[in-house]
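[09:14] KT: can someone run the structure on this one? pasting the chain below
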Amino acid sequence: MDLTATERDFLGRLACEAWISPPLFDHEIVARLVELGLVETEPLDSGEIEYRITAAGRDAL
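[09:31] RB: done, structure tokens below
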């Protein structure tokens, strides 16, 4: 799988801990990672989204 530098960096950060998006985060930046099943999301009551790496995401690193 051919990931961009931004996608690889994001996966690397998620490998250490889950990440909660700030209110103005452009979710399209990482939408492909979610579509590929490398990252999973969970909407929070605050309107933010929590991102977590999946086993497939760890394998892609």
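[09:33] KT: thanks! The CA atoms of residues 39 and 53 lie 4 Å apart.
[09:34] RB: yep, looked fine to me
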